[in-house]
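User: quick one
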Amino acid sequence: MSTIEQYNRSFIDTFSVQVEMLHDLKYQDVPDWDSVGHMSLMSILEDEFKIEMDIDDIIDFSSYETGKAILRKYGVEL
Amino acid sequence: MELGKKLHSYSLSEIKECQQNRFPMLFVDRITEAVPGEYAKGFKNFSYNEWFFPTHYEDDPNVPGFIQVEALVQVFLMTFLTLDEYRGMKTSFVSIDKVKFRKKIIPGDKLEMTAELKSFRRGIASGLVTSSVDGSDAASAEFVVCIPEILSSFKPSN
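Assistant: Done. Structure below.
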């Protein structure tokens, strides 16, 4: 599985969304992306890519697209 | 227990300093052994004076399942609310899985519970609690519990 597929799968599994929705997906756009869902996503991404994100990056991670840029800071190419 | 880890015990008043559950919804009498951040062992004595026995049921008093689950989770809370930085914070359920009730609990029973904290990251705790009465297996469950106050500090501003 490519890194972008891993990234997409993390969102799809955590928030029960379709891949077509990902491009525009933002925090609280779907009921499952609430504060608990946000922490679940962060944990899954950290486990998936074997990274540990800073608090500021977790707070800034407000959308699917923003998340891509944040993960690049940790060497994850998407 | 690994060498060097400090064992703790907690009286009822010390339990109340760690968690905000109160009568009639506090279902742990004492924590007999705990390593904060790892595990906790405690018990609840159910006497006939419990508020629910006269109605559940009049002719066959026993501890309702939801109260057994609540007792289990209250011991689980003591695995991480005993850490200084989280002491006394309010918690919320995220999920309850694999709940099993293996024994009817009746007036006079002492429910002994053991909670293991499997992970605790950024305000989300997950773990397993088992219990017994007189050495016989009773209820068990897996819990995910969060501390909303901690989650709020990680929320995107959006």
